[in-house]
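Lab notebook, design round three. We kept the backbone fixed and only want residue identities now. Task for the bench partner: fill in a sequence for the structure below.
Input structure tokens:
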């Protein structure tokens, strides 16, 4: 009966979102914020239709959140079309590297000196809350491979990179909590989790994406079956293989999956040409999409396109559509579950942490970076504000819970993480659309 109730509730939530989507578009609220409120409404503190014990569900919640992040990272990589030498990548690297490390330090100091937590829990919670989220931040990220806006591109690159780069600090927090051998283990942590795991994860995924992408296009062109190839299978295979191969050789799977999307996109760039629109837009009439380039919009004629462009366009279009569907479904399900358990894990100290993290630590870290002329003042403020926390933080929470936390520390981490993530979903969810609309309006006026 509980399974039937879960399916019924999920179906009801999806139906509600489908029927109200035309209204939500014009409201200053995101889908995630609506799902959070729906979860609270159907949870034990509302209609009491659903109950969830995180003690019993921590293992499958770890894997579920992991899958959601993997899909989102892959799709994020597919959307970033600029070459790595482009200046906008400096923004992404700065946000995912120095800004995130400074954020971890800032939250750790706040928790230790402000809330009197020990260094171990303070560092672990700081690492869990530091990465911005690739799943819930869709509105502020690149939505189309043609988008090269500095704010959107920087936030997308940050979300793709920092979920993997946060992992070493989560591991460091666990080492600090677990004890006596920390003085001898930190060198091994530095070599394995930083010097080795980060570059190996990136390089493994990137070259797998390029290699599998090139092989797939060659086979499709040779067999003339590019319009019927199961590209959703290819997306699943590449995500799985990039993750498994990287993890098996000690690299970070999150970084590998993101880099696999980047590598696959570079195959499309090479087949289409960097100066041309993305291939999926050139063949959109074939796959049934809208917003087609003018030269191909009238008849949907692809005779002037090369076979490699048609194959690449259909492959990318199918993968983006399939990945986006999975990403949205996982977002709805997980955020609704967060709402179900939120009030039973609410911690009022999260109001202080959220206010300082969202309004002080993140903006100051962004403003303090030597961006030069890469970003204008208002763009820095936007990036500083759009540090959305979400599913990535939930994964790190459940990963930590399943790796030997004591009951006291586990409860502390759970309550603070869930509360801060919920605050981010609500605060950023309410403010995102109005702020972005104003930003786009000012950008149009300037151009």
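Proposed sequence:
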């Amino acid at each position: 009966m509980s399974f039937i109730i879960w399916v019924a509730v999920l179906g009801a939530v999806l139906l509600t979102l489908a029927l109200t989507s035309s209204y939500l578009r014009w409201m200053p609220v995101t889908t995630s914020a609506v799902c959070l409120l729906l979860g609270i409404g159907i949870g034990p503190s509302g209609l009491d239709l659903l109950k969830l014990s995180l003690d019993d569900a921590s293992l499958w919640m770890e894997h579920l959140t992991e899958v959601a992040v993997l899909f989102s990272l892959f799709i994020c990589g597919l959307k970033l079309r600029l070459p790595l030498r482009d200046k906008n990548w400096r923004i992404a690297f700065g946000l995912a590297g120095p800004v995130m490390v400074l954020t971890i330090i800032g939250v750790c100091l706040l928790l230790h000196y402000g809330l009197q937590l020990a260094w171990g829990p303070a560092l672990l919670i700081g690492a869990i809350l530091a990465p911005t989220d690739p799943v819930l931040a869709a509105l502020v990220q690149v939505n189309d491979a043609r988008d090269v806006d500095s704010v959107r591109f920087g936030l997308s690159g940050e979300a793709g990179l920092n979920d993997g780069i946060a992992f070493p600090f989560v591991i460091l927090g666990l080492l600090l909590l677990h004890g006596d051998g920390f003085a001898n283990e930190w060198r091994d942590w530095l070599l394995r989790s930083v010097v080795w795991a980060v570059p190996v994860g990136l390089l493994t995924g990137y070259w797998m994406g390029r290699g599998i992408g090139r092989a797939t296009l060659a086979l499709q062109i040779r067999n003339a079956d590019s319009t019927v190839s199961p590209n959703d299978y290819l997306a699943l295979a590449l995500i799985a293989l990039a993750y498994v191969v990287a993890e098996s050789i000690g690299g970070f799977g999150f970084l590998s999956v993101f880099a696999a999307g980047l590598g696959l996109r570079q195959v499309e760039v090479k087949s289409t040409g960097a100066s041309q629109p993305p291939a999926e837009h050139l063949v959109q009439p074939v796959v049934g999409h809208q917003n087609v380039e003018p030269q191909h919009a009238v008849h949907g004629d692809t005779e002037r396109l090369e076979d490699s462009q048609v194959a690449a366009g259909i492959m990318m279009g199918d993968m983006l559509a399939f990945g986006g569907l999975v990403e949205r479904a996982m977002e709805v399900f997980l955020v609704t579950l967060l709402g179900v358990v939120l009030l039973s894990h609410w911690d009022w100290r999260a109001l202080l942490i959220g206010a300082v993290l969202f309004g002080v630590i993140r903006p100051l870290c962004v403003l303090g970076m030597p961006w030069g002329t890469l970003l204008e003042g208002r763009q820095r403020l936007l990036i500083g504000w759009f540090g959305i926390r979400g599913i990535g933080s939930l994964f790190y929470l459940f990963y930590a819970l399943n790796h030997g936390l004591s009951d006291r520390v586990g409860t502390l981490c759970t309550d603070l993480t869930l509360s801060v993530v919920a605050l981010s979903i609500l605060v950023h969810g309410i403010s995102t659309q109005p702020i972005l609309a104003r930003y786009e309006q000012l950008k149009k006026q300037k151009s």
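Keep this in mind before ordering anything: The mean pLDDT is 87.
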